Integrase catalytic domain-containing protein (Brachionus calyciflorus), 343 residues
Amino acid sequence: MRFQYVVPNAERPEVLEKIHDDPFSGYLGIDKTFEKLTTRFSWPNYSKDATSYVTACEVCAAVKASKAYTHIKRLRTSAYHPQCDGETEPFNRTLEQMLACYVADNHKEWDKYLPKLAFAYNTAVHATLCIVYGRQPKLPINLLFPTPNLDFNLTADAYASKVHTHLLKCYNLVEKHSQSKVNKFKFYADKHVRPASYVTDERVWLLNERKKKGISKKLSRKWSGPYTIIVKLNENKYKLRPDKPGKKKLVHVNRLKKCNSPPPNVRYDSILEITKNSLEDQLSKESTRKGINQPRETMGSQTTTPIVSTAYQPETDKGNNDGTFWIDNDHLTLQSQEVFSSP
């Protein structure tokens, strides 16, 4: 059962002012103002009066932007895609407009209004306070027009039991509708989306979203890695291991892209094989051209391979008098790169 005050004509402007202009009301729109009004008060044509009052409000007209004027199209975010967050962004916009209604002349006091405006927003038409506490919240205007208690026989224990029963029904109803909404949003979000899919042991790049002080994001590398996928938790979440020593990461698929470069071990083996083949060809040509026959020899306890004739004279202490240069097998790849880069 809900009780409403029938407001006399002389007190209606004060009621509308408290419902709309007060910091605990927050200069909200027509729908939210009307919802607060209709749950507490009534008079002939009060819906029309409330609409006219909010429409004629000079503060709202000066602060709130028109969607038609700014050509803003309202979009809802898809699952796991915060670039267009349909829940967070409308609240931020509403809170900014509410603050602007009270601190337009003094921006240093905006934080003082946050508790009142948070209360105004939470007690609006989309309020969840009824589900949490089992009753309508008390507004400042309720102090001027207190709600009478007509059930004198209801004890505190009986009231608590009654509220508990109603809350259980509310929880079940909210859970049912919430799951229905989630399924609906997911259906439309996934309708035209074909997310990328990766497999275990596949190598990927990770989108670098970290911001460091003093570092320009525009001039920084957009992707870090490469990483190797070690666990695929589901179609959206993957666990990665970096190629270089570092921590494992749990990331969303939207931050990944395929890495086409070979793994480090494959890349090293390929380079080593190419280098050895090129080195053998170079040695064969040098030996044929110079007439040099240089078999494998032992220098002390290390086995070395002669790879260059007198045509190459590096500055080193390991050179022989005949101009032949000896290197260790372990440094074959490194030294061969120096050979081919020298004139």
User: Anything to note?
Assistant: Confidence is low (pLDDT under 50) at residues 267-271, 292-319. The chain has three domains: 5-148, 203-261, 285-341.
